[in-house]
């Protein structure tokens, strides 16, 4: 006989781990299923382990479809396949977006999701080692701290930004984003604070919580219009007496829904899947931040590039092992900021990430004599893409099409952002550190040249969202309580429900969504 739980949570990522911990606080019997393995490897604990993650560790290994507006290029698309999900493989940057992002959700019909509505859940999650005020909390599960290993070149970057009129901001996750500074990081005691570590590990002993890793769901079981359980690859079925909670992320959630016959019926027919619910919104409205960058060669060892060599890498490992310092203690992208490509924008529309080296992420060029990277991303893209199935095989990679630059406005704003980061790196304050720009290179000056460079080199900022859009309209995939429209007993709880992508990194927002969802579930069904 199939096992039965009150709640089945599909996906042990940033949101799923939060749900498992919060819903098992009471008497409900909770099952958490994660397709990937445990986050046992040391790279998942070390802040600098991020550099390994974009090169394949803990990832599904997926790529985009050929991008029409980027010269037909396929981009590597890192999606986590490990307990903790994105929070186990990201650069640990703790940002939330602008207050206006959430107020806009409310204006789009998502009652209960204004900034004032969601702020208590950001605070509830936090154990912030620096701030405790209206915007930040202490005592929550998630460690949030200041960078442990900044370098002098970071201060040069702040001074260079100031020379262009961009101010310093000591808390970009607080009252406002505007300015440059050190990002707060999801770390505690100079170790990554993923949701696996922060939420699930402390409660694994609970008798009413079962955690299964290496367990992939192949479909959600729907009977008479209600989600009643899941079927795993291999045929095992598990029942949910209360609700099935889908938390597999902005790619994984629409993928599984479509494998279950829930999605655009016409598309499902093309891959041989019978539609049990025609819902065109599933897998639509994919939004992501496209990352453009400049890389400069340094005058000396002012970044962490030399530690990529085997001997220095061993030295760095020993420093971290014995006193939690040095390159391994750095997330490598812990400095950045927010500013305006459009001076009339309602909040910053460009985000910067200063990379303390070159070639940090997969597919990005490495400077042979040491370099520094400054990324820019346009934060409110108008382009919309899709997640679709390549086949009915649950092990096949999905068709991920972010459709970057489909709207010419995104291209224009992205090029403005790239010009901005080039200008910052050319300022006198960085002169003692920076020898010369190598990418795009000083000969590329026109918009056409920079667009061609971006088409060849741009990458995802790892922020997909919107593919199971929340709303009050009939076309929305979930309602503001995150209940699936058209199927009872099913909710989607992850970044896919964002009606608009937030103007920042998305991890803290996914955690907030799950914190709020746990309370809504308790209110709705008394869990």
Structure write-up:
With 527 residues, the protein is an alpha/beta fold. α5 (115-125) packs across α13. The longest helix has 19 residues, at 507-525. The chain folds into 2 domains: 1-142 and 185-277 and 467-527, FAD/NAD(P)-binding domain (3-Layer(bba) Sandwich); 148-182 and 290-378 and 405-457, Cholesterol Oxidase, domain 2 (2-Layer Sandwich). Strands 1, 2, 12, 13, 14, 15 and 26 form a 7-stranded mixed beta sheet that branches. Strands 8, 18, 19, 20, 21, 24 and 25 form a 7-stranded antiparallel beta sheet that branches. The chain has helices at 14-23, 50-53, 86-89, 99-107, 115-125, 152-163, 195-200, 249-259, 265-270, 310-323, 408-425, 447-457, 507-525; strands at residues 3-10, 30-33, 62-63, 76-77, 93-94, 126-128, 142-144, 179-182, 184-185, 187-188, 191-192, 209-212, 217-223, 226-232, 237-246, 262-263, 277-278, 290-298, 335-339, 350-355, 371-378, 386-388, 399-401, 434-439, 459-460, 490-492. The relative contact order is 0.19. It is globular.
| CATH topology tier name of the largest domain | FAD/NAD(P)-binding domain
- Write down the Rg: 22 Å
Low-confidence stretches: none
How would you sum up the major sheet?
7 strands, mixed
For the structure shown, list the relevant keywords.
single chain; 527 residues; alpha/beta; FAD/NAD(P)-binding domain; Cholesterol Oxidase, domain 2; 2 domains; seven-stranded mixed sheet; seven-stranded antiparallel sheet; 26 strands; 26% helix
